[in-house]
Structure formats: structure tokens, C-alpha cells
Design a protein that fits this description.
By secondary structure, this protein is of the alpha/beta class. The chain starts with a helix and ends in a 6-residue tail after the last helix. One of its GO terms (molecular function) is hydrolase activity, acting on ester bonds.
Length: about 350
């Protein structure tokens, strides 16, 4: 009996202190950006109210939500800080980043041309900042401790929606080069190179994030309504998201066989997100078709500001915060689900 008590205490310690995960390191787009866009020349920012009104201290950090984003909840689930700071935020330094750091940039994607649309950080630049971070970490902690953090950290990646919605379906260039299936394959090849580069830099525990049902974002529902389709989800976009997720899942399987000593998982938000959107009341939501901020039909960023009289008073009753991004409550539900079903296997 004594052995089982000790073993149970050991397991509890892992879950409460994150003993086997020293850090969470984040790459991606606005789904996980903790405020890096505040510090670059772009119109795509959210460092103003009412963004962040439900964050710690009611601070608008540059997260595209009323509060925390998924990577914050996942960090907390691993027993680390309840938020992951942005690498470009001068309020933090390398001692803060040793247990978690976010390189994500709202508006970016796998495709470099996607980041050009709104002048945000391309994925290659996020990786360059990560290399810089590694050097600072080694200078701060010494090679041995730094290398341990690098190899034992969990790497979260979340991007791809902008490649389709802001680039492929909006601008003519990629559509003239690729059909939709070919473009998916092009993005998957970039994702593969990206993960292999992280592996070459020492990463071993990686979560590759999938796409949500992007045809059900309020902005896409509004577009559908304007096109005479009654404000329903764009099923073509949802089908593309599912196809792309299937290809990412296949990539993860291949890479696990190829990259010795790696543990790569596919974190697919689509099924749980679809359940929330289809039956919002089952999760305590009143609305999934429109967002909390402003009219909830098309606004995000600067169009969603503190002077807009239409913004809802209680974001917890809405699935979406603005026309493109979930509320903190939705982020928590999805993050908790992914942690329990997928990410906890990285412990």
C-alpha cells in the first residue's frame, strides 16, 4: 500500500508542478499570439480595450480575445505559469522566458506570402527569434540546463487558417498557381520543413495544431448571408479544414517514424469546436453565430474598440469574442479537451 501512495503522490507532483515539462514554447498566428504584434509595424493589433478585459488585471496584452488564449491554458495545465509571455514584449526577459515563450504573430501562416498580407512576422522569422532565444538561454543558464529545457519543453504550433482565409481565398496569386488540394500539399510541405528544423535545433516534444471549422467563424457566416445563403457556415471551407487536418495527421505519423527520439502529436481542435458551434447551449453558450465584440458580424482589431456601443457585457455567453477569434471560455474548453486527450501524452 505504501508504494501505491508514494507512486500516486509522484504522479500528482508531475501534474501539479509540470515536473517533466520545463517550458512551453509557442509558434503560430493570432490563435496563440500573446502580444508580439504590438511591437511590429502592422495594423493587426489588439492591445486596446475591450480586448483583454477579462485577462489578469483587465490588461489588453495583444491577445486576440477577451482573456487568455489556448497556449496560456495549456501552460497552466502543464503546471507552469497561467500565461505564456510574448518574446518581443520588453516587460519580460530571458529568466521569464526560461519557462515559456511565445513567438507567434497574428495574421501569419505557413506560407510566407500570407504574412505579407498584413505585414506580420513570417514563420521563418519566428524561427529566427527562437534561435536567438536559444543563445540567450544558454548564456543565462549554461549549456546543460538550457539544452535540457530545449529538449524537454513542449512546442505548440497553431496556424494555417490565415493561409486559406486571408490568402488563398482572398488574393489571386496562390489560386493562379495551385488548386486547393495542391495548396494544402504546399502548406504541409512547409509544416514538415518547419518541424524538421525545430527537431534539428533540439526540439523533441511537438504539438502540431490543426484547423478549426473555419467556415463557421462569424465573419464567414456574415459573408455567407451577404451571398444569399442565409448566414450558414461555409461548408466548402469546413471541408477544406478537415482535408488539411487529415494531411497534417498523416504528416505527424510519418515524422514520428522518421525523427528518432521525437514525440509529435496532432492537436485537432475541429471536432470539439464543431460540437460547440453546433450545440452552443450544451456548453453554456447563448450564441455561436455572432461574436461578442461590436455587432459581432464582421469586426475585429481596430473595428472592435472600447467605444463600440454594441459589445456584449458578458463574453462567457458567446462562443466568439470577435468575428474571427474565440472567447476565453471557448479557448479554455478546447484547450482542456486537447490537454486531456492529446497533450498530456507528452508528459
Amino acid at each position: 500500500m505504501g508504494f501505491y501512495i508514494v507512486f500516486a503522490m509522484f504522479i500528482m507532483q508531475i501534474y501539479t508542478t509540470g515536473a517533466t515539462v520545463p517550458a512551453v514554447i509557442v509558434f503560430g498566428d493570432s490563435s496563440v499570439d500573446a502580444g508580439n504584434n504590438n511591437h511590429i509595424q502592422t495594423v493587426l493589433k489588439s492591445n486596446f480595450r475591450p480586448y483583454g478585459r477579462d485577462f489578469f488585471g483587465g490588461k489588453a496584452t495583444g491577445r486576440f480575445s477577451n482573456g487568455r488564449v489556448p497556449s496560456d491554458f495549456i501552460s497552466e495545465s502543464f503546471g507552469l505559469r497561467p500565461y505564456v509571455p510574448a518574446y518581443l514584449d520588453p516587460a519580460y526577459n530571458i529568466s521569464d522566458f526560461a519557462t515559456g515563450v511565445c513567438f507567434a504573430s497574428a495574421g501569419t501562416g505557413y506560407d510566407n506570402s500570407t504574412s505579407d498580407v498584413l505585414s506580420v512576422l513570417p514563420l521563418w522569422k519566428e524561427v529566427e527569434y527562437y534561435k536567438e532565444y536559444q543563445k540567450k538561454l544558454r548564456d543565462h543558464l549554461g549549456d546543460q540546463k538550457a539544452n535540457n529545457i530545449i529538449s524537454e519543453a513542449v512546442y505548440l504550433t497553431s496556424m494555417g487558417t490565415n493561409d486559406f482565409l486571408e490568402n488563398y481565398y482572398t488574393l489571386p496569386n496562390r489560386r493562379s498557381q495551385y488548386n486547393i488540394n495542391q495548396y494544402q500539399d504546399y502548406l504541409v510541405s512547409i509544416a514538415e520543413s518547419f518541424i524538421k528544423e525545430l527537431y534539428g535545433l533540439g526540439a523533441r516534444k511537438v504539438s502540431l495544431g490543426g484547423l478549426p471549422p473555419m467556415g463557421c467563424l462569424p465573419l464567414e457566416r456574415t459573408t455567407s448571408f451577404m451571398n444569399g445563403n442565409g448566414g450558414t457556415c461555409n461548408n466548402e471551407y469546413n471541408k477544406v479544414a478537415m482535408q488539411f487536418n487529415g494531411k497534417l495527421s498523416g504528416l505527424v505519423e510519418r515524422l514520428n517514424n522518421e525523427l528518432v527520439g521525437s514525440k509529435i502529436v496532432f492537436s485537432n481542435p475541429y471536432p470539439i469546436f464543431e460540437q460547440i458551434v453546433q450545440k452552443p447551449s450544451s456548453f453554456g453558450f447563448a450564441s455561436a453565430a455572432v461574436a461578442c465584440c461590436a455587432t459581432g458580424l464582421f469586426e475585429m482589431g481596430y473595428m472592435c474598440d472600447q467605444y463600440n456601443p454594441f459589445t456584449c457585457s458578458n463574453a462567457n455567453t458567446y462562443v466568439f469574442w470577435d468575428s474571427f477569434h474565440p472567447t476565453e471560455k471557448t479557448n479554455r474548453i478546447i484547450s482542456d479537451h486537447l490537454f486531456k486527450t492529446v497533450l498530456s501524452t507528452l508528459l
